[in-house]
Write a structure and sequence with these properties.
Largest sheet: 7 strands, antiparallel
Distance between the termini: 39 Å
CATH architecture of the largest domain: 2-Layer Sandwich
Helix content: 25-40%
CATH class of the largest domain: Alpha Beta
Structural class: alpha+beta
Strand content: 25-35%
CATH superfamily of the largest domain: ATP-grasp fold, B domain
CATH topology of the largest domain: D-amino Acid Aminotransferase, Chain A, domain 1
Number of strands: 14
Order of helices and strands: EEEEEHEEEEHEEHHEEEHHH
């Protein structure tokens, strides 16, 4: 095959290929699932397809309300066309309800609402296990400027408001989520935009009625039916076409 695309990067859940035009990238969603810094791995049939659909849907809606993302369009079942950005090496976590590491660190009951939304920063490094960092570290090591930190926090809170409303309307409680950001260069301008993905891989989502987990914790905690839960999120959001609705969910 002479038309092999040039692979730029392969991560745990996605592959990035050179895009059709300069400044664009094709983001391919894999079925690989990893947890605990890739110590736990599996292939979950169809996960990449659902995450691609959910992430494309959310990013498109964010772009439409003026929250800039790297997303351009979904090109097929597993891929989307995105703008090339220079990634800021941080994972930005917004928490509304105690769950996961904050429960362990601070001895909070899982499921307890937090006094207000809390934003945490983690330095993106698999080798170090993505350690939590403060703004002081971010500016000292020049991972982002104070202006970029302000932009990131403002964007994160806007995304939180949007997702909270969107998921709440379909009976899903937004517990927390992780965002990544990049610098988009447009001539002399540089803009902070949302990059990577927003999907059940990067959000904690619980059913409002049952508290059933509909996210990656199903994989982390061996609860099973991971792809089914992700598919249910897509179904509730009205993303899945009727054709997919006939598939049996065990």
């Amino acid at each position: 095959m002479s038309t092999r695309r040039k692979k730029i990067y392969e991560g745990k859940a996605k592959i990035l290929y050179e895009g059709p035009e300069p400044g664009t990238i094709i983001q391919h969603f894999k079925d690989d699932a990893t947890a605990f810094n890739a110590q736990k791995k599996a292939i979950l049939e169809g996960k990449g397809v659902v995450n691609n659909q959910i992430s494309a849907f959310i990013m498109q809606n964010l772009n439409a309300i003026g929250v800039q993302t790297h997303f351009i369009k979904r090109v097929n079942m597993r891929e989307q066309l995105v703008r090339e950005v220079e990634m800021i090496p941080l994972e930005v976590v917004c928490r509304n309800v105690a769950a996961g590491s904050i429960s362990q660190r601070l001895g909070l009951t899982e499921g307890a609402p937090l006094p207000r939304s809390i934003i945490e920063f983690y330095y993106k490094s698999d080798a170090l296990g993505d350690p939590m960092v403060a703004e002081e570290h971010i500016t000292a090591f020049n991972w982002a400027s104070t202006q970029e930190i302000d932009d990131v926090m403002a964007l994160t809170l806007r995304v939180n408001d949007y997702l909270h409303g969107m998921f709440g309307a379909v009976g899903i409680r937004l517990i927390d989520f992780k965002l990544e950001f990049g610098r988009l260069y447009e001539g002399d301008m540089v803009r902070t935009v949302i990059a990577d993905e927003i999907s059940p891989d990067s959000c904690r989502l619980w059913d409002v009625q049952t508290n059933e987990k509909m996210d990656k914790d199903r994989f982390r905690r061996d609860l099973g039916n991971v792809t089914e839960a992700y598919t249910e999120v897509a179904r509730r959001l009205g993303i899945l076409k009727a054709a997919g609705a006939g598939e049996s969910v065990h």
